[in-house]
Amino acid sequence: MRIAVYSHRAYEADTLDRALREAGIDALALESRLDVRTAALAAGTEAVCAFVNDDLSAPVLEALAAGGVRGIALRCAGFNNVDLDAARRLGLRVLRVPAYSPAAVAEHALALMLTLNRKTHRAYQRVREGNLALDGLVGFDLEHKTVAVVGAGRIGTALVRILAGLGCRVLAVDPQPDPALRARVEALGGVFVPLDEALPQADVISLHCPLTAATKHLVDARRLAAMKPRAMLINTSRGGLVDTKALIAALKRRHLGAVGLDVYEEEAGLFDRDLSERGIDDDVFARLLTFPNVLVTAHQGFLTREALTQIAATTVMNLQAIDRGEPAAERELG
Questions:
Q1: Is 299 part of the annotated catalytic residue set?
Q2: pLDDT-derived band at 175, boundaries 50, 70, 90
Q3: Whether pLDDT at 30 is above 80
Q4: Which of 15, 23, 265, 324 could form a disulfide with 312 if both were Cys (CB 3.0 to 4.6 A apart)?
Q5: Which DSSP state fits 176?
Q6: Residue 114, Cβ neighbours under 10 Å: how many?
Q7: What region, left, alpha or beta, does residue 333 occupy, with left being phi > 0 and alpha being psi -120 to 50 degrees?
Q8: Catalytic residue (one of 93, 238, 265, 331)
Q9: Residue 164, class by beta-carbon neighbours within 10 Å (0-12 exposed, 13-18 middle, 19+ buried)?
Q10: What is the layout of strands, in order, in the sheet containing 294-296?
Q11: 208 annotated active-site
C-alpha cells in the first residue's frame, strides 16, 4: 500500500514512520499541509494520512479522489476540517484516532493552569535576567477552588480525576455525557450542571469539547461576561470554541484573570511553523500575545511519547482497514 503523509514532522520519525515501515506501508512524507494546491502530490497513492490543520474540504477531496485516493486516515480525534458529505459522495472512507492519550491533553491543560496561576513563565524569564524580586508573582491555591470542565469525554474525565486529586470542586458540563464516563466523574465528586450555571461559579473554566455547528463560539461575549471576575479560561480543544475578538475585549476590560490557549481559531496558517524571522501577520493573534496574563502554546497538548505511539498504532490499523476494505468500528466517520 502506498500513501501520502501530509503535515509530516520530524517528531514523528520514531513513532509514525517506524510503525508504517513495520507494517510494510510505503509512505511519501510531505511537510506541506494538504490543500487544493498540494492535493496533486498524492496522485497515485491509495490513501492520505492527514493532520488536524489539513484542509479536507470538498474541492480537496475531489482532487484526491481524481488522483486515485480511496481513503483518509486522520492522525487526530477531531474532524471538523473534513467535509464528510463530500467524502461520502466521492466514496472516500474517513477514519480517525478517537482516543490516543487523554492524560496527555488533560495534563497540558493543568500545566497551563498552574503556569498562569503561579506565573512560572514570567518568573523564569525574570531570574534569567537577574531579577529575583517576587512582586507581581502572587498566585492562589488551586485546592478548594471551583473548576468547570466543559466536555466530559475521555479527556475531560481525565482532567476531573486530576483536579479531584488536587482537592478542587469540579463542575462538569456535558449535554449528553457517556453513561460510563458520567458515573466515573460523579464517583470522583464531580457534579453535572448546565454551562450557564457553571460559569458564574467557576474560578477556572477548561474546554474539552469538539468543534461542531452547535459549539462554534460556545464561549462568546455573553458567556465571557457571565464568568466570575478574574476567572481563568483554558482551551486545549479547538480554537473555534472561543470568539477570539470577544475574548480580547474581555481581556482589555480586565474581566478575566488569565487565559491559557493551546488552540486558536485561525491556527491553520500559523501553528507548527517557524515564523521567528518573518513575523506574525495575524493582527488578532498578535494582539492576544500582548497581554501579560495570556499564555499560548501551539497545539502541543497531544505531544507526548505515549500519545504519538498510540496515534501511530491506530493510524496503521486504519490504513490497513482502508487497504483491505475492512470495517473500522468507532474509528470510521460517515
A1: yes
A2: very high
A3: yes
A4: 15
A5: S
A6: 15
A7: beta
A8: 238
A9: middle
A10: 191-192, 169-173, 146-150, 204-207, 231-235, 256-261, 294-296
A11: no
Q: What are the residue boundaries of the structural domains of the chain, listed by start?
A: 2-100+305-333, 102-296
> CA 260, CA 113: separation in Å to the nearest integer?
7
CA atoms within 13 A on the CB side of 236: 25
Which region among 111-115, 267-271, 280-284 has the lowest average model confidence (pLDDT)?
267-271
First CA to last CA distance, the chain: 23
Q: Residue 10's pLDDT is what?
A: 95
**What pLDDT was estimated at residue 330?**
87
- Per-residue CA distances from 211 to 36, 76, 216 (Å): 23, 13, 6
Tell me how far CA of residue 187 lies from CA of 33, 140, 149, 180, 272, in angstroms.
43, 27, 15, 11, 38
The helix (run of H) or strand (run of E) holding residue 170 is strand 169-173
Instruction: Report the CATH fold assignment for 2-100+305-333.
Output: Rossmann fold (3.40.50)
- Name 299's Cβ contacts closer than 8 Å, sequence gap at least 6: 52, 53, 262, 263, 267, 271, 272
pLDDT of 334 reads 74
Q: What band does 99 get if pLDDT is binned at 50, 70 and 90? A: confident
Q: Distance (Å, rounded) from C-alpha 108 to C-alpha 155?
A: 11
Chosen CATH of 102-296 out of 3.40.50.1580, 2.60.40.720, 2.140.10.10, 3.40.50.720: 3.40.50.720
Of 108, 208, 223, 299, which is the active-site residue? Answer: 299
Instruction: Name the grid cell of 132.
Output: 529575583
* Global model pTM greater than 0.90: yes
Which of 12, 46, 265, 267 is labelled catalytic? Answer: 267
Tell which residue, 325, 331, 319, has the closest CA to residue 91: 325
